[in-house]
Design brief:
The complex is a heterodimer of chains A (465) and B (192).
Chain A: H1 4-17, E1 26-27, E2 36-42, H2 57-69, E3 76-81, E4 95-100, E5 114-121, E6 124-133, H3 149-161, E7 163-164, H4 191-201, E8 212-222, E9 229-235, E10 240-247, H5 249-253, E11 263-268, E12 274-278, H6 282-291, E13 302-308, E14 311-319, E15 325-333, E16 341-350, E17 357-364, E18 369-376, E19 392-396, E20 402-406, H7 415-420, E21 431-437, E22 440-447, E23 454-462
Parallel strand pairs in A: 2-3, 2-4, 4-6
Antiparallel strand pairs in A: 1-7, 5-6, 8-15, 8-17, 9-14, 9-16, 10-13, 10-15, 11-12, 11-14, 16-23, 17-22, 18-21, 18-23, 19-20, 19-22
Helix pairs in contact in A: 2-3
Chain B: H1 4-15, H2 30-36, E1 39-53, E2 60-74, E3 80-86, E4 88-90, E5 93-97, E6 108-113, E7 130-135, E8 141-144, H3 161-164, H4 172-188
Antiparallel strand pairs in B: 1-2, 1-6, 2-3, 4-5, 6-7, 7-8
The chains are: A alpha+beta (465), B alpha+beta (192).
Chain lengths: 465, 192
């Protein structure tokens, strides 16, 4: 068998060319030899709300550093923020990331989004600078597929690390990769990118479980009968410890008028069986709940800590003794390395003003979280009386800024994706939107565009998982 | 890290997106390449030399790449043309610029040049403005992209990167002919 010489030749070719024989990644040649790669981020704040939930351009870039860091063992990006002025200099010993109208005094040329320049001596990187073209109408996130800053930054920082374009290898490689010069719709690291960066810096032992929802909460009016506040969630994969809470007095302390003075919490499985209930959190599991660091602030509030098998669950928040008022139902994922909360939902009375239904969730990262958010009113007809006749959902970032909204799911620019995932609502007056978000805290405000009131259901689906 | 579902999500998203874009350079169409170029010529690299240039915050290494012009296709290239490219090696210091094509003495290329001296890489679409001339198995001269894949269909440039090299490489003569005819057409009917 005369295969060995050919195998050796291929192996030599792969090593000389910097191309993996099983992956398509291509290495630039030099790499960083220090354990940290200090970056100076001086991108500033956009004049609009970024659609992927980033609070400013600096945070956007820093999320990209975190995504790369998660994969590397021997070296890590570190970063400091600096003002946008004075502009960074070439060959100043700093690794700068900035918007600029030129590449250190030279024009970009048409169609150039960003340029990374790097100095090296021998096989060691000594400085890398990333300039984003101010002539581009930047946005960020997959809902803005053209000129997506996050995607371009992820790519450019791959260059900073020492990765080249796999499609420009000899012969060109065709694996999907953020490092492709023709990236298409890839907006996160692929296996090829990870293999490339780990060839340079070793495999990380700290890779997280990927994007997931870490916490859900819903604030709304809890009445009696069909009008109690009902929070639902679906757990995937494996048993998972969760903490459910029902808050009322804490809301009063935060200035919310008409909050429940003594909420109770009941947890049901998918067969409708009551599996746990609680009135005052310290009564039954006080120590356990305190150990989570998530004990409710007021002793009259309720909490349940439980390890739940995969399945559908319902938590009902109601006022003790039939009292009514505004309450906050929450479910925390206590084990972010196991099972995934796929979906959260809350059914409740949707009022106006303080009484709108408000859902909150935390996207854990560092990767981008893909979600579908739905606000269902007319679609509940036939299942419960007095449904909300029309719906509106607003998605807000942790600063309370409006990211996007929808009235009538068919008006969402990504409505085809709602159907693709089988999550298109049944009624045209129900609302829904598809989006991708960076890690952070988000709020969904659910109400009626005509100030109508009624029973409604707000849902957040984790599509990443 | 659970990548596959996210990839599915992004792949699904791609189904509903319009055309994909390059990460860092939006590839020009053939008409844009020809229309934007101030000078198009076939030439051979005769010299590459690098030096420090610029002052203060703009100080960097540049490479002066000199071509012996074999044929001017658009504009007035003749004799020797020197293009100023950001990047290069001086002493033990090297400055690399991502996306910049690399030149060495003996390279036989067709260059679509714009803003020489004022643009960091004075080629239309940076690496997209450089095509390589190679000999095929029959001894004829054919045209390859900067990445070294055959250029078989200029109409796919900037639109369908797979389609660009879906067939046999164009001959050098055919390529220059279509460049000339396109340049003439654009001169007669400038795009609005």
């Amino acid at each position: 068998m005369r295969r060995k010489p050919l195998f050796c030749a291929l192996a030599l070719l792969a090593s000389v060319g910097g191309v993996s024989s099983t992956f398509g990644y291509l290495l630039e040649g030099p790499k960083w030899t220090s354990s940290t790669i200090p970056m100076v981020v001086q991108l500033g704040t956009p004049s609009f709300v970024l659609p992927d939930g980033n609070l400013d351009w600096n945070k956007d870039a820093e999320n990209c550093f975190q995504i790369w860091n998660e994969q590397m063992r021997d070296s890590q990006f570190s970063w400091t923020e600096a003002p946008t002025s004075p502009a960074a200099a070439q060959h100043d010993g700093k690794n700068s990331v900035q918007f600029s109208g030129s590449v250190f005094g030279k024009g970009y040329g048409s169609g150039v989004l960003a340029v990374t320049t790097y100095f090296f001596s021998g096989s060691s990187m000594t400085e890398a600078d990333v300039n984003f073209n101010t002539g581009i109408n930047w946005s960020s996130g997959v809902v803005a597929p053209k000129n997506d800053f996050h995607r371009v930054a992820l790519h450019e920082f791959g260059h900073v690390l020492g990765l080249d374009h796999p499609d420009q290898a000899q012969p060109p490689q065709s694996q999907a990769a953020i490092m492709h010069s023709m990236v298409g719709s890839t907006n996160t690291l692929t296996g090829d990118d990870v293999a490339g960066v780990q060839a340079l810096y070793g495999p990380s032992t700290n890779v997280g479980p990927g994007p997931r929802l870490g916490n859900i909460s819903t604030r709304g009016f809890s009445g009696t009968g069909d009008n109690v506040l009902i929070a639902g969630f679906i757990l995937h994969d494996q048993a998972k410890p969760v903490l459910a809470r029902a808050l009322g007095p804490t809301l009063s302390g935060a200035g919310v008028a008409g909050a429940l003075s003594d909420p109770t919490l009941s947890l049901y499985n998918q067969s409708g069986q009551l599996i746990f209930s609680n009135d005052n959190w310290a009564d039954a599991q006080g120590t356990e709940i305190q150990q989570t660091g998530l004990a409710p602030p007021d002793s009259r509030e309720a909490a349940i800590k439980a390890t739940l098998a995969p399945g559908n669950y319902t938590a009902i928040l109601s006022g003790k003794g039939g009292a009514t008022g505004i309450g906050l139902a929450e479910v925390y994922d206590l084990s972010l390395s196991s099972g995934i909360a796929y979906n959260i939902s809350t059914r409740g009375f949707v009022g106006t003003g303080e009484n709108v239904l408000i859902a909150g969730f935390i996207a854990k990262g560092p990767e981008i979280e893909t979600v579908i958010i739905r606000g269902i009113g007319p679609g509940l007809q036939g299942t419960v009386p007095g449904v909300l006749p029309d719906t509106k959902i607003e998605l807000r970032n942790s600063n309370g800024q409006l990211i996007t909204s929808n009235v009538g799911w068919q008006n969402d620019p990504n409505s085809a994706l709602l159907s693709f995932y089988g999550l298109a609502p049944g009624n045209a007056k129900d609302s829904a939107l598809y989006t991708q978000l960076v890690p952070g805290n988000y709020t969904v405000i659910f109400n009626s565009p005509t100030n109508a009131t009624g029973i409604g259901l707000v849902e957040v689906y984790d599509i990443s998982n | 890290m659970k990548k596959i579902p996210l990839l599915l999500a992004t792949a699904a998203f791609a189904l509903f997106c319009d055309s994909a874009r390059a990460t860092t350079v939006i590839p020009p169409t053939f008409d844009e390449l020809v229309g934007r170029a101030q000078m198009i010529f076939e030439g051979t690299v005769t010299d590459v030399r690098s030096n420090w240039t610029g002052e203060g915050a703009e100080r960097h290494i540049e490479s002066l790449v000199t071509f012996k012009v074999k044929d001017s296709v658009k504009g007035n290239a003749s004799g020797k043309v020197t293009l100023s490219m950001m990047g290069g090696t001086v002493g033990d210091q090297t400055l690399e610029v991502t996306d910049a094509p690399k030149f060495k003495v003996g390279d036989h290329d067709i260059l679509f040049v714009e803003n020489n001296g004022t643009q960091f890489i004075p080629l239309v679409g940076i690496m997209h403005g450089r095509f390589r001339v190679q000999s095929d198995s029959s001894g004829g001269e054919v045209v390859m992209t900067n990445e070294g894949v055959p250029l078989s269909d200029v109409s796919k440039l900037g639109k369908d990167e797979t389609g660009v090299s879906s067939g046999r490489a164009l001959s050098l003569a055919s390529f220059k002919q279509v460049v000339r005819s396109t340049a003439a057409s654009l001169a007669a009917h400038p795009p609005q």
